[in-house]
């Protein structure tokens, strides 16, 4: 045996055992790891494999050794020579690939998707790693490679359902796995999944940490096939400084102007130990009581076909609960429209804080067929934009400054949704207390400002819509107004009639309703009754009055008839500041 001793100041002593080439006995070399110490000529440098209490990982064999407690050797960084080098020890203790050791990946390591490496479930060690953010490469389409940054991703790949689990744009961040938007490969309309057929690379910035994820909060809400939205059942979205109601069916479109509450999805909850919990059925699924106004069909909500609105929200039913034998109290809750979370404390009437008003903001994101019954012309003072996802795009770009879905920076104006089979038939006297003009829109007009009655609140906008097969037929020459409307005046009448009286809305702001105001309103309605533009007729709109912008709207296969004057294929009558851009009519 040969003993080589190096005398110096040191922080720790590393001892390496090796076979002596001459007599096959074990020799022992002492190597001092300290910047101030010297090494003998017989010392070996092990910093490539072990340094500062960290085991350095270069290859798959080393990964597979983690948790095995096998001894680290000096040649483990070379996969072909793994385990054949000198065994490394510190202070007479071997360095091993233990569950509690510190590790660092020195490079990206390719993994086999069909036999993916797994980090032991009882791993308590750490991985040193660099910074990972949303700009880190998650998918390389040129090589069909998905990069793995955390143990959540590994567990998804290992799952039996990996073929159906989508790769989401924020999956590189362990706290955000399952969030963001689906990732698509080039030239494909199908989003990526963690299918085992892809190439996988373990990033050198991999971490074994598994913090509580935001996705856990929304795991009960599907993000698959949500048609460009953040999650299925979503009916409200804030983009910039505007909140939009998402319109996905005929029932919603017909409710615009009704003032009824907008409802998102509704779920069953139970009260236990003074706390509300999301209820589950025998299969562990949350119990849906309503799919949301925009997702009435089973194919959209995944559960059943629902009727529209409050009256069609199912009541709580403890028989559906896996806790039905327990003495709990059952109730209903809404879905947070900012996070997609089923919130057991959220009142269903307050989940959206929106109503189908004439001056709200709307995004139409699906094609809508109106052939079931005649269309009632819409008095409108808000914003209506068509934005239909093409299977690859999203409807908006979410703001990365927030960690949930609460805010988007801008709207993606994609394909035009098609509103088809619009039939408008005006055969009876037109009631000017309800409607002025005949068309898909009766009147488009801006509201007067609350602070300056001579100014507009803002531009009314209609954008990126396609209409197919519109038939507008106005056969009446008479108008009327209901006298009971005047008799039943309240102090809120100004809000009710604002959509009807265009620029004269300011006349309604006299405070409490008295006889003088009733006379004034009666005069206004009489004037409207005698106004020939009340019968103005167009396929798109009967009347456009005030500050209105119409852009990128297309009409195909249209027919309009009117026994009166003020008739147009697009608009019957225009007054005020109106802007057109990209208008098409075939």
TrEMBL record:
It comes from the Bacteria. This is GLUG domain-containing protein. Keywords: Signal. The lineage of its organism: Bacteria, Bacillati, Bacillota, Erysipelotrichia, Erysipelotrichales. Residues 1-18 form the signal peptide. It comes from Faecalibacillus intestinalis.
């Amino acid at each position: 045996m040969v003993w080589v001793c190096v005398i110096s100041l040191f922080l720790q002593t590393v001892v390496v055992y090796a076979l002596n080439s001459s007599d096959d006995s074990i020799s022992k070399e002492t190597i001092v790891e300290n910047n101030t110490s010297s090494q003998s000529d017989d010392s070996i440098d092990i910093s490539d494999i072990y340094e500062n209490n960290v085991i350095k990982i270069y290859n798959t064999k080393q990964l597979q050794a983690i948790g095995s407690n096998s001894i680290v050797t000096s040649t483990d960084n070379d996969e072909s020579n793994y385990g054949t080098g000198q065994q490394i020890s510190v202070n007479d203790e071997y360095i091993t690939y233990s569950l509690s050791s510190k590790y660092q990946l020195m490079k990206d390591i390719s993994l086999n998707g069909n036999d993916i490496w797994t980090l032991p479930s009882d791993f308590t060690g750490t991985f040193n790693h660099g910074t990972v953010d949303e700009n880190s490469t998650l998918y390389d389409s040129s090589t069909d490679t998905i990069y793995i940054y955390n143990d959540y991703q590994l567990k998804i790949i290992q799952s039996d359902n990996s073929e159906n689990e989508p790769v989401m744009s924020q999956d590189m961040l362990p706290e955000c796995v399952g969030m963001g938007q689906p990732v698509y490969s080039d030239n494909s309309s199908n989003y990526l999944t963690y299918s085992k057929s892809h190439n996988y690379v373990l990033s050198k910035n991999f971490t074994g940490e598994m913090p509580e994820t935001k996705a856990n909060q929304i795991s009960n809400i599907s993000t698959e096939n949500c048609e460009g939205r953040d999650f299925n059942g979503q009916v409200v979205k804030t983009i910039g400084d505007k909140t939009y109601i998402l319109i996905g069916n005929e029932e919603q479109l017909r409710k615009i102007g009704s003032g009824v509450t907008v409802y998102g999805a509704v779920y069953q909850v139970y009260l236990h130990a003074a706390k509300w919990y999301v209820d589950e059925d025998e299969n562990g699924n949350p119990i849906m009581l309503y799919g949301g106004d925009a997702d009435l069909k089973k194919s959209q909500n995944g559960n059943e076909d629902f009727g529209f609105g409050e009256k069609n929200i199912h009541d709580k039913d403890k028989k559906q609960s896996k806790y039905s034998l327990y003495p709990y109290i059952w109730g209903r809750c809404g879905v947070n429209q900012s996070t997609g979370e089923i919130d057991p404390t959220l009142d269903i009437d307050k989940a959206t804080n929106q109503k189908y008003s004439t001056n709200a903001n709307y995004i139409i994101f699906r094609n809508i067929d109106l052939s079931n019954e005649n269309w009632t012309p819409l008095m409108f003072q808000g914003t209506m934009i068509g934005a239909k996802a093409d299977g690859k795009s999203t409807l908006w770009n979410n703001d990365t400054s927030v960690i949930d879905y609460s805010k988007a920076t801008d709207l993606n104006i994609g394909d035009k949704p098609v509103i088809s089979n619009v039939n408008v038939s005006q055969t009876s006297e037109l009631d000017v207390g309800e409607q002025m003009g005949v068309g898909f829109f009766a009147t488009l007009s801006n509201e007067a400002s609350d602070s300056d009655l001579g100014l507009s609140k803002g531009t009314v906008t209609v954008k990126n819509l396609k209409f197919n097969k519109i038939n507008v037929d106005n056969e009446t020459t008479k108008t009327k107004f209901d006298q009971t409307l005047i008799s039943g005046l309240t102090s809120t009448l100004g809000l009710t009639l604002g959509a009807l009286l265009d620029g004269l809305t300011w006349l309604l702001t006299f405070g409490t309703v008295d006889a003088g105001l009733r006379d004034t309103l009666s005069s206004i309605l009489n004037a409207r009754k005698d106004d020939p533009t009340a019968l103005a007729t167009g396929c798109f709109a009967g009347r456009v009055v005030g500050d209105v912008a119409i852009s990128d709207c297309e009409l195909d296969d249209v027919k309009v008839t009117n026994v009166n004057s003020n008739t147009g294929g697009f608009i019957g009558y225009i007054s005020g500041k109106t802007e057109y851009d990209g208008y098409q009519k075939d």
